[in-house]
Design a protein that fits this description.
Elements lengths: L3 H6 L6 E6 L5 E7 L2 H7 L9 H9 L2 E6 L3 H15 L6 E2 L7 E4 L8 E4 L8 E3 L5 H15 L19 H4 L13 H15 L4 H16 L3 H20 L1 E2 L7 E8 L3 E10 L2 E11 L6 H13 L8 E4 L6 H12 L4 E3 L4 H31 L1 H11 L6 E10 L2 E11 L2 E2 L5 E4 L8 H25 L15 E4 L3 H14 L5 E6 L5 E6 L2 E4 L5 H26 L15 H10 L3 H6 L2 H5 L6 H16 L1
Parallel strand pairs: 9-12, 12-13, 14-18, 18-19
Antiparallel strand pairs: 1-2, 1-3, 4-11, 5-6, 5-7, 8-11, 9-10, 10-11, 14-15, 15-16, 15-17, 19-20, 20-21
């Protein structure tokens, strides 16, 4: 038993990190302290206005532990690492763990390349960014490679010069082919220097050069080249116009502000690089303390800048935060140079922070409305279906479908929806093993039997081995089974479940003559459903998804030749004749029983091919 009084007496008066744990040894909270003795003891004093969340956390503490560090800075780093690793329940957490893209120019190579990178390493390369849009980075790299005809291959040059033929990029005039020695190192580096000018924001030289080339090509009636230069000119101009000057000083800085409601907060960051606003991004913070925006801002800075590879010279903040000097020292060590935290009060900088705060408020309000609409499409739709069927709780729904080509290569699909959303990790495919021919009822019986037998066996195995983990996709049974059809499909499912001793509600999705869902078949009654309701739309989505998943699997088996037809083994029967046989006869059994005369009715088969089919099956029957 953990003795709080004794353990509190043992606390050292050193800096370090403390970890609060519950009765199951789960981590409730991780914090840092300049003085562990004073900080940890403060949690167990009488309530001094800490707030209901902290009071609740304290009531759950079964024990605590601590790690002593040499300095408060080390404690800060360790606290950040532990929060990222364990995501404690009562720490304010950065919900979006994003890594932002950079443009990397490999200046350490004799023939440099321009690459996409999410890591900023200490090498001889030059990095530009970070950028908020990966798509924009890829477009920029593609544009630069076209403009300056730089290599994109991974060959080691000059070692590999002349070892292989030039690639397609050379032939379409998008590479100077240094791999063949068609351009020397100095000339190639001049092209790289032009790309660096572009990345540094000097577009005028490039625009002037492209305009001159376009006019010269046009004058010489080389209209394809002129069109290529015109397109590049327009691309460069479009990129240059996207840059908005925000600061004449030309510094790198991040502008950070937030907006908070009762349960979460949105932090908005404007990325300013070389005085230009290159992008913005928002981040969700969960488990936020009430009415303590500076603390949320501090938690964001520690978690975000503990993971991002680039740290600017300055952070402009909406509110002053605790431990400013400590955070500046920590960021400075990570950056390799001084970092300053400022809270602007007047002028354009203060307006920029205010603009970031307004954006955060708009994002949170918009997302709240979006979430409300999404809940209507998902959870609301599920409740509507449950109400129509008279069920109290429907969380997980499973739907099945069968796909084949004239009875050949029967396959089944299982799709899973939880809380009205597809759970694709639980989707399953079935290759029918016991049914030959187009018998959807028999195929569905096999699929359902295999699915629920797997579930029973998986659950029994977990129970026998006393494995404490969430059940897998088979042993986790649905609250509602949706069948693609009416009475017949529902009765097949009910018979399988009864045979296995499983009780699950089964509902049929009844279609009209135009193959559109018109109602639900449940407990021997067809229930009408409003075709404009969210419940109906969800049923349609599930039905379409089961159908799509089955057809996709069937096509992949055919296209990749993963399923080999027995007809392929007949001498003289190629793909065209095999398809003709499949179109003419309903099943493989019908082909087995066919006579030579019946086979010769197929235009694609001559007498010799018809005899080959009969002889083949006669030989197999005698074996």
């Amino acid at each position: 038993m953990f003795n709080f009084e004794e353990e509190l007496k043992k606390l050292p008066k050193d800096p370090g990190v403390y970890i609060m744990r519950d009765q199951n040894d789960g981590i409730l909270y991780v914090g840092k302290a300049v003085n562990l003795h004073n900080r940890v003891r403060s949690y167990f004093r009488e309530n001094i206005g800490r707030g209901p969340a902290i009071d609740q956390m304290v009531s759950l503490i079964a024990r605590f532990e601590y790690i002593v560090t040499d300095s408060e800075l080390e404690a800060l780093v360790l606290e950040n690492n532990l929060i990222k690793e364990h995501s404690p329940k009562y720490n304010t957490l950065l919900k979006d763990d994003k890594t932002y893209p950079y443009i990397k120019v490999t200046l350490g190579e004799d023939y440099p390349r321009i690459q996409f990178s999410r890591l900023m390493k200490k090498d001889r390369s030059k990095y530009f960014g970070p950028y908020s849009s990966a798509a924009a980075v890829k477009d920029t790299i593609e544009l630069l490679n076209k403009l300056y005809r730089l290599r994109t291959c991974s060959r080691v040059l000059p070692r590999d010069i002349g070892l292989d033929r030039p690639c397609l990029n050379y032939h379409i005039k998008q590479c100077l082919a240094p791999c063949q020695g068609y351009v020397d190192r100095e000339q190639y580096r001049l092209q790289v220097a032009g790309a660096l000018e572009f990345l540094n924001g000097n577009y005028n030289v490039i625009l002037k050069e492209l305009e001159e080339k376009m006019r010269a090509a046009s004058a010489e009636m080389m209209f394809e080249d002129a069109a290529r230069y015109r397109d590049l000119y327009n691309s460069v101009k479009a990129v240059s116009q996207k840059q908005k000057i925000t600061d004449s000083a030309g510094d790198d800085r991040d502008v950070i502000a937030l907006y908070q409601d009762a349960s979460e907060a949105v932090v908005q960051v404007f990325f300013v690089r070389d005085g230009k606003l290159i992008g913005r991004e928002h981040y969700y913070m969960t488990q936020v303390p009430e009415n303590n925006k500076p603390e949320i801002l501090l938690d964001f800075i520690k978690q975000f800048y503990g993971g991002t590879p680039f740290i600017p010279r300055e952070l402009m903040l909406q509110y002053p935060i605790e431990d400013t000097e400590l955070i500046e020292r920590w960021l400075g060590e990570r950056r390799g140079g001084r970092v300053r935290l400022r809270v602007p009060k007047i002028g354009s900088k203060e307006k920029l922070v205010e603009l970031a705060a307004q954006n955060a408020r708009l994002i949170l309000n918009q997302d709240r409305e979006k979430l409300k609409r999404e809940e209507g499409r998902t959870i609301g739709a599920v409740k509507e279906i449950a109400g129509l069927l008279g069920l109290t709780c429907v969380n997980r729904m499973e739907a099945f479908d069968i796909s084949n080509t004239n009875g050949f290569e029967n396959v089944g699909s299982m799709v899973v929806y939880e809380k009205g959303k597809p759970k694709r990790s639980d989707y399953r495919k079935f290759r029918i093993q016991t049914v030959a021919g187009p018998d959807d009822y028999a195929c569905m019986k096999e699929v359902l039997t295999r699915r629920f037998l797997h579930g029973v066996e998986e659950a029994r195995d977990l129970e026998e081995r006393q494995i404490e983990r969430e059940y897998g996709s088979f042993s986790k049974f649905p609250d509602l089974l949706l069948m693609d059809g009416g009475r017949g499909q529902v009765n097949i499912a009910l018979a399988v479940l009864e045979e296995l001793g499983i009780s699950i509600p089964v509902c049929g999705m009844v279609k009209d003559d135009n193959h559109r869902t018109r109602g639900l078949y449940f407990n021997n009654v067809e229930l009408p459903i409003d075709t404009h309701s969210e419940g109906f739309k969800l049923i349609t989505r599930i039905q379409d998804e089961a159908h799509r998943f089955a057809i996709e699997y069937h096509k992949s088996l055919r296209g990749k030749a993963q399923v080999k037809s027995v007809l392929d083994e007949i001498p003289g029967i190629g793909p065209a004749r095999r398809k003709a046989l499949m179109r003419h006869f309903k099943s493989l059994e019908d082909i087995r029983r066919a006579t030579v005369e019946e086979l010769r009715e197929i235009p694609e088969l001559n007498g010799r091919a018809a005899e080959a089919v009969v002889e083949f099956f006669a030989g197999h029957a005698s074996q």
